[in-house]
Amino acid sequence: MNFQVTVLKILVAYPDGFAVMEDLKRDMAILATSGRDWADRTRRLAARVPDLDIWSQGLIERTSGGWRLTSKGREVLEFMEARPMPEPIQAAAASETTPPVAEIAAVPPLTQPADRAKLRRERRERRREARERARANAS
Fold first, then answer.
1. Domain that residue 25 falls in
2. Which pLDDT value is given to residue 1?
3. DSSP labels for the chain?
4. Whole-model pTM?
5. Domain stops at, among 82, 97, 131
6. Is there a single domain that holds both residue 2 and residue 61?
């Protein structure tokens, strides 16, 4: 299950949600060895969709040389990452024990879509530079 969540998270970071198998394998190896935090995070995300199957549910598609995240895959990932809404307090129980609570305004997203796009571009550029350095060092 954590493998499938990791695949979704990796693909969403690539342009158009497409990554070749070499990049997927490299990113999976990095995340798999990054420590307990990543394993715990993917476990929490997977718990939000217990019957997750990225292939049979059409969340990713296999194309020549790699995998592509579908729009349905993006929706499922957004659902998994969404903060759970607090459960409403029962009106009768709340009036007996606590004073009325003012409605909480919706929490604005931490970043704007333009900010996320900029972060993705920067991340791609860092990856590209790292690949170039690795190739230069291998020569």
1. 1-82
2. 47
3. -HHHHHHHHHHHTSGGGEEEHHHHHHHHHHHHTS-HHHHHHHHHHHHHSTT--TTTTTSEEEETTEEEE-HHHHHHHHHHHSPPPPPPPPHHHHHHHSPPPPPPPPPPPSS-HHHHHHHHHHHHHHHHHHHHHHHHHH-
4. 0.58
5. 82
6. yes
